[in-house]
Specification:
Largest sheet: none
Helix content: over 70%
Number of strands: 0
Structural class: mainly alpha
Order of helices and strands: HHHHHHHHHHHH
Shape: globular
Radius of gyration: 20 Å
Number of helices: 12
Strand content: under 5%
C-alpha cells in the first residue's frame, strides 16, 4: 500500500510541481511533506502490526499522528485553488470526520474504528485513480478539468469512507461537506462582527472560510503567487464576468 501511495503521488504530481515552485519559494513546503510522511507511516505501522499478528488497537501515538494529519489537511486545503467551490470543503470535511473517528477509536479502544481511520487515507489513491480514468476515457474533454478534479476528490473520499466500514460514515460525510460549504460562506459574510471576532479568526486560521476572505485577512503567498494549472478555475467571479460581458454586448449593439 505504501508503494502504491508513492507511485501514484509521483505519477500524478510530476506535471504539477513546476506550477507550485513559486509558492515553495515564498513559503516552506514542510506541511505537505509532513502530510505525506505521516499518512504513509500510519498505513505502514498499521499493516506491520497485522503482519506480526498484533491487534491494531490505537494508542496515544496513533491518535497524535491522526491529529497531525488532519491539521496538515486543513492547512493545505486552506489556500487550495484547484477545483470548484466543493473541493476545499470535501477535503476539510473528510479530515474532520477522520479525526473524529480516530478520537472515538482511541477512547473506546476499538480496533474496528482504528482500521476505519486508516482506510479513509485511501481517499488519496481513489481520487488520483478517478482523475487518471477521466483522462483515459475523455471525460475531461466534455467538462472542465476543474470539475473533474472536484468530483474526483469528493467521490474518492466517499469510496474510501465506504470502504472504512464505519457505520453511517458516508451519509455523515456528505452532509458534512454541505455543512462546511455553508459554514465557509457564513464565516465570510459575518467576518466583521465584533461579537464573534475570535470565533471568526479561528475559523479563518483553520481555513473554514471562502478563499476571498482568507486572501483579504491573511494575504497568504499561495493565493498571490500566480499559480495556475489545468485544475484551477478562473479566479474571476462568474456573476461579475457575465455582467461585464452583457454590458460589452449592449454597448457594441448601441
Amino acid at each position: 500500500m505504501g508503494l502504491a501511495y508513492l507511485a501514484i503521488f509521483f505519477y500524478h504530481t510530476r506535471k504539477s510541481i513546476p506550477s507550485y515552485q513559486i509558492t515553495f519559494r515564498k513559503r516552506s513546503n514542510v506541511p505537505l511533506f509532513v502530510h505525506i510522511v505521516v499518512g504513509l507511516y500510519e498505513i505502514l505501522h498499521f499493516h506491520s502490526q497485522a503482519i506480526y499478528g498484533r491487534k491494531p488497537v490505537p494508542d496515544a501515538t496513533d491518535t497524535a499522528l491522526c491529529v497531525l494529519h488532519t491539521l496538515t489537511t486543513l492547512h493545505l486545503s486552506k489556500t487550495l485553488l484547484r477545483g470548484d467551490i466543493t473541493t476545499r470543503p470535501s477535503y476539510q470535511a473528510g479530515g474532520i470526520l477522520r479525526l473524529s473517528t480516530g478520537l472515538a477509536a482511541y477512547i473506546t479502544r476499538s480496533d474496528a474504528l482504528h482500521r476505519g481511520t486508516i482506510r479513509m487515507l485511501n481517499a488519496f489513491l481513489y481520487t488520483r485513480m478517478l482523475i487518471f480514468l477521466s483522462k483515459r476515457t475523455g471525460l475531461d474533454t466534455i467538462q472542465s478539468k476543474a470539475s473533474v478534479y472536484s468530483q474526483s476528490v469528493f467521490l474518492g473520499a466517499v469510496i474510501a469512507i465506504y470502504e472504512s466500514g464505519v457505520s453511517g460514515a458516508v451519509p455523515l460525510y456528505i452532509l458534512s461537506v454541505g455543512f462546511v460549504i455553508l459554514l465557509n460562506h457564513h464565516i465570510s459574510l459575518q467576518i466583521n462582527s465584533q461579537i464573534v471576532q475570535f470565533y471568526h479568526t479561528l475559523m479563518l486560521w483553520l481555513g473554514l472560510a471562502e478563499l476571498r476572505s482568507i486572501r483579504t485577512h491573511f494575504h497568504p503567498p499561495e493565493l498571490d503567487a500566480g499559480i495556475s494549472d489545468q485544475y484551477v478555475v478562473d479566479a474571476e467571479d462568474p456573476v461579475e464576468k457575465l455582467t461585464a460581458e452583457m454590458k460589452r454586448s449592449t454597448h457594441a449593439r448601441s
